[in-house]
Amino acid sequence: MVVKTELCAFSEYRIYPGHGQRFIRRDGQPVNLSTSKCKGLLNDRKKPAKLMWTQAWRRLHKKGKDEGVIRKKARRIVKVARAIVGASLDDIQKKRAAAAKAQKVSSAEAAALKEVKDRQKTAKAPVTKSPHGHMASVPKHQKSATFNARGGSKR
Amino acid sequence: MIQKNTVLSVVDNSGVKRARCIHVYHGYRKRYAKLGDLILVSLLAVRRKEKTEKQDLKKGGVSKAIVLRTKSTKSFKSNNQLFFKENSVALLNSKSKFAGTRVFGVIPRLLRKTRFLRLLKMSGG
After folding, report:
1. Nearest to B66 by CA among B29, B14, B75
2. What is the spatial distance between Cα A81 and Cα A90, in angstroms, rounded to a whole number?
3. H or E stretch including B89?
4. Which of A66, B7, B54, B57 stands the most exposed, by the fewest C-beta atoms within 10 Å?
């Protein structure tokens, strides 16, 4: 038979059978006390969190916790897109997409322009170098599949 | 451990507030009354005059009472000990019937063993 042990309401020590007293408060709540020391201090209305020998104090001052503690993984910060005053979430996302596209376009254009320059150097043909250029000035054999009629890269 | 001259609070709705123990029943020179014992009390203070006058209880009068709560501990065979914050009684009239119809607050389970089972009905639970 296993007898249930209570915890002292003051010191939080275990109360084994044959020890301690039970005090019934005015509202009917039972308060288990392990020793007359706890009983006396309870009567004096002392706070267990202010007495160094109680478990309440130890918890408050974080004593003796190192044995069973597993370090928590550092949490990763998740960036969440949020709406701000003056721009709703949709607007922000559209602008972002457009900006990303433009960047992509400009980088692709720059790469295309570089490619043209290189080819022209090798071909040694005098050509006007403008990114949105007149495609007619480019010799036909240098026209690549990535160019469209208006100029600019493949979309 | 209620003895002569112990002042007790009356926790039924008989209208009496405080009572003083003047005699402990059931024993020659029995000194102390514990939970569930009968005592004789004199009535010190009255809560509602109209109520008590109906039952012929008045300040300075005498009545029987049963001890419901004590500040001293009650020990059990199972090694538990129990005590309350106050010394309380419920009043009985001369015919050993209860003067009130309700009992306030907590009363201990061991009162089931007494012959006053009406107490259980009177109490809240």
Report:
1. B14
2. 10
3. strand B88-92
4. A66
* 3-state secondary structure at position A84: strand
Average pLDDT, stretch B53-64?
A: 86
Which pLDDT score, from 0 to 100, does residue B83 have? 95
Q: What's the gap between Cα A16 and its chain centre?
A: 47
Distance from the Cα of B68 to chain A's closest Cα (Å) equals 12
Q: Write down the pLDDT at residue B85.
A: 93
Please give the DSSP secondary-structure letter assigned to residue B125. Answer: -
d(CA A94, CA B112): 78
Under the banding of pLDDT at 50, 70 and 90, the label for residue A150 is: low
Which residues of chain A make contact with B83, given a CB cutoff of 8 A?
A: 21-24
Of the candidates A85, A102, A103, A83, the one whose C-alpha atom is nearest the C-alpha of residue A93 is A83
Distance separating alpha carbons of residues B2 and B22, to the nearest angstrom: 10
Q: Give the percent of chain A with pLDDT over 90.
A: 33
Q: What is the pTM of this model?
A: 0.64
Q: How far is CA A150 from CA A155, B37, B73, in A?
A: 12, 110, 101
Contact A21 B79 (CB under 8 A): no
Rounded-to-integer distance, Cα A131 and Cα B66, Å: 107
